[in-house]
Every structure is written in structure tokens, then in C-alpha cells.
Amino acid sequence: MKFSNRMAAACCLVGLCAGMAQAEDVTLRFGTLIAASAPGVTEGANVFKRIAGELSDGSVNVQVFPGEQAGKVTQTLDLVQSGALDIGVLTSALYSSDRLPLMGLLELPGVSASLCEVAGAMVDLSAPGELIYENDLVPNGIRILAYMPYPPYGPAATRVPVDDIEDLKGLRLRNAGGLMEYTTAALGGVPVRMSAPEVYQSLQRGTIDGVLFSFLSVKSYDLASVAKHGATGFSFGTPGDLVIMSERRFQSLAPEQQEALVEAGRQTSQHWCEYVQKSELEDMAEMREAGMDIHTWTPEQVEQLTEVTASVSKTWAETLDARGVPGTEALAAFRERLSQ
């Protein structure tokens, strides 16, 4: 099934395709860590807001609070669960280690599928009765309205050339956390955690040697001005933003408002993956033209990177299995969806 139809099908699965009555107007607080000028807001949150308003004939008013104005990203899940926030944006890497373990699928290295295919596979596995739904969403009392994965992360901005896998050894690399810490370590790098806004100054001062980012993020944070090298062509993971809502709050809305939110999430996810795929190529070309040295991994290097990082996925799955979470089953299901 095409991604553009998956979330519409999910709408019917939860009974939202029935007849509708007139709904009272509702205002929903939408909190995100992302700055107001960043693509995650301009091409994500604001798109969701507009579509939800249009589809509900104005009965759903989404108020967007960017830049952690409505709460810290580390508190977002709790804020949504408690009702202090109606809709929130989670970063997968912050929660994949404990409360949303199967979101680690977004951070697996070596995935060669397109972003829309990745998002579509995650939507499939988040449908009622599926693995993410039963193991991540139901226990937390939430639903995911939209998946917004970023283009494949890699050493997109480094202070030194990265033309060979050996060049990664010993580099202090900022990463998004979660599985990418293990991927960095498997390749001989030194994983460093810090917030995205701290990266520019850390690169400038030499506190870190590079960052695992997409080129979309390199442009957003102007990192090409302090890091003149990078590499592309192998995914170190596709961490993403998850637009969530508590199931209790969702069920409190009128059926037509529920349907508007589900459809707004579907359209936002589709718009996002198409936008970032296009922007990633444009941003990379622009940086190369401006003089940035961006190495493209050769087929032989991709094969070597795949071999070295293969243990990361296996270890992740087995670790979850030991916790009673179906990691191996989820990994197989995710790969199966991507192959369809």
C-alpha cells in the first residue's frame, strides 16, 4: 500500500469513517522543541496546523509553540500524557532507549530505503494490533499523528576530511543518541551527546570533530561555515520527530475532528518526506558549490560500512528481546515492509 493511503486506511481502522455531527470549536496546544524558522515548524507543525483547520472547517484551532515554549523536549511525553499539552513533538532518539523502544527502528544503520518508505513502514507498524502500536503506543496511552524522519544521518559536517572509514576512528562525533551512539562506537568514533544548538560553537572551538546530521540540518545550523568537510551515501540512521497526542484527548474530540487530525497527520507526513528528500539534495549541491568537501562513499566503502555496523541492529534487537520487547520480530517486520 502506498504511504499516501496508509494513514487514511488507519483512519477507518479506528472507526473514523462513520457519519459525523457538528462539533464544538476546540483549541489544541501543539508544543515542539524546534525553532520557529526551522523546517520542522515551517514544513511540519505549521502545515499540520493549516490542514487540520481546513479539514475541520475551522473547528480545530492548533496553536503552535516552537522552541520549547510549552515545555522541554525531555518532558513532552509526560506533558501530553497529563493533558498539559494536547499535541507534542518527540525526537525518537530521546525516547527509544526506554519508553518507546521500538522507535529505535528509525535509528538503524544501513537502511537504503527512501524517507517516504521508512515513514510508511513505521505507519504500518503503528496501526492497531501491530507491533509498535501494542508495545510502544498502548502502554503510554498515546497515538502518533505524523512521522517526520530526517534524511539519513552521517558525518555531514567535520573539521577534517572523511574520505575513508579509517578516518572516522577517534573522531569525537556529536550524534542524536540512541542507536547512533552504538553505530559511532562500532566505527571507532567517540560518541558525544549535546543539544543541536550547541553544535556550532563546539565545532568552532574544536570541542567536537564532527556531527552526525543530515545536510538539511547542516544548513539550518550554518555548520558549513565552521566545518568544511563531510561524507554522504550511507545512512547512520534516520532519527525523526514524532507528532503525538494522548489517546484520551483524541477520543474526547468529535469524530469529524478526529478524522481531520488523522488526515492532517497523513498529509503532513507525506509533505515532509517529499520536502526533505528534495531539500537534502539541493542543500548538498549548494554546499559543494560553496566549496565544502563532501565525500561520497564508494560501493566498496558502503559494503564495508554495512558489514561493520551489522552487529548494531542485531544487538539492539536481542537487547529488547531480553527486556520482553519483540525487537527481533519488529526488525524483521520493518525490513519486510521496506522490501515491499
TrEMBL record:
InterPro entries referenced in this protein's UniProt entry, alphabetically: DctP_fam, TRAP_DctP_sf
Signal sequence range: 1-23
Keyword field: Periplasm, Signal
GO cellular component annotations of the record: periplasmic space
Pfam families referenced in this protein's UniProt entry, alphabetically: DctP
Main localization category: periplasm
Example GO BP: transmembrane transport
Localization (cell): Periplasm
Gene3D superfamilies: Bacterial extracellular solute-binding protein, family 7
NCBIfam families: TRAP_S1
Protein name: TRAP transporter substrate-binding protein DctP
Source organism of the structure: Paracoccus pantotrophus
